[in-house]
UniProtKB/TrEMBL annotation:
Membrane topology, as annotated: Multi-pass membrane protein
Positions with a binding annotation for Ca(2+): 133, 174, 179, 214
Main location: membrane
Keyword Transmembrane in annotation: yes
Subcellular location per the Swiss-Prot or TrEMBL entry: Cell outer membrane
Keyword terms, alphabetized: Calcium, Cell outer membrane, Hydrolase, Lipid degradation, Lipid metabolism, Membrane, Metal-binding, Signal, Transmembrane, Transmembrane beta strand
The protein's name in its UniProt record: Phosphatidylcholine 1-acylhydrolase
EC number, as in UniProt: 3.1.1.32, 3.1.1.4
């Protein structure tokens, strides 16, 4: 059996089993759903010390992600196309993401603040593209240093749970003319109520000199802030992430919707829909709509 057929078979079996399992695995003790305090060790009872590896952002595999407009001629704003001829790319590829964090310092600010280190890696893989020898179309690396402080007050009917900021670097590790990278200071505020969690994240890009800027105007396309709303019930999870450039002239951004359904224990099926700019760094100024089907290993 060929490599692409193996992936297709894996996807069909997983997706079909997941739909069947929705009616079979609904027990609360089979679903690990964490509160903000448990995820970020905010309350004294949830603190686990330093240098323990924890999940961070979503950890998933999409054996099939389809796009309506594959970026065959990537180019930065104001630059020539990176290639003389369009790349022979497939509109369906594999996407996966891994993400971890660990606490470096605990209780450093008034006995409550923490410093975390996070790392996220996302891949777009042309695994079905035999003609081009199945290359990785894009790999994005995102290390960050996160300062977090617990909160406990009512805000707009929600319980405010934490705030802080992070020093964030994101790049694709590629040479010119397809090199992409930027640095940000990302502020965050999170709150929850019953089955809802809300994250608000505005950021400031650290200026890059024009001659060294691989992706000019990236914040005009990917955005300057994002809001994430998560709703969970009976092992099912709805996740809506919205990014916006906060510009009154040419307003850009994106919307990503994720639906997870229980398969067994902590394994979940995942449907992901994205529309807008910046699905990854090479596509930062490229508009597209994607639909992906796969599995998720960690609660969002």
């Amino acid at each position: 059996m060929s490599f692409s057929k193996c992936f297709s078979f894996f996807f069909l079996v997983t997706f079909s089993y997941g739909l069947h399992a929705q009616g079979l695995f609904r027990k609360k003790d089979s679903i690990v759903t964490k509160s903000l305090s448990e995820t970020w060790e905010l309350d004294e009872k949830d603190r686990n010390g330093t240098f323990r590896l924890n999940s961070y952002k979503p950890f998933y595999v999409l054996p099939a992600q389809w796009t309506n407009r594959i970026n065959e001629m990537p180019q930065s704003v104001g630059a020539e196309p990176a290639f003389e001829e369009p790349l022979n790319l497939h509109s369906t590829e594999v996407k996966f993401q891994i993400s971890f964090k660990t606490k470096l310092i605990q209780s450093f600010l008034f006995g409550k603040g923490d410093i975390w280190m996070g790392y996220t890696q996302t891949a777009n893989w042309q695994v079905y593209n035999k003609q081009l020898s199945r290359p990785f179309r894009e790999l994005n690396y995102e290390p960050e240093l996160i300062i977090n402080y617990p909160l406990d007050f009512k805000f707009l009917g929600f319980q405010a749970k934490m705030a802080g900021f992070a020093f964030n670097h994101q790049s694709n590790g590629r040479p010119d003319p397809i090199s992409r990278s930027w640095n940000r200071v990302v502020f965050h505020f999170a709150m929850e109520k019953n089955n809802f969690q809300v994250y608000l994240k505005p950021w400031i890009r650290v200026d890059s000199s024009p001659e060294d800027d691989d992706n000019p105007e990236i914040d005009d396309y990917i955005g300057r802030a994002e809001a994430t709303v998560i709703y969970r019930k009976n092992g099912h999870s709805l996740n809506l992430r919205m990014r916006n450039s906060l510009s009154f002239n040419e307003n850009h951004g994106s919307v990503q919707f994720n639906y997870m359904y229980p398969i067994r224990n902590n394994l979940r099926g995942l449907i992901q829909v994205f529309s807008g700019y910046g699905e990854n760094l090479i596509d930062y100024n490229h508009y597209q709509t994607t639909v992906g089907l796969g599995i998720s290993f960690v609660e969002w």
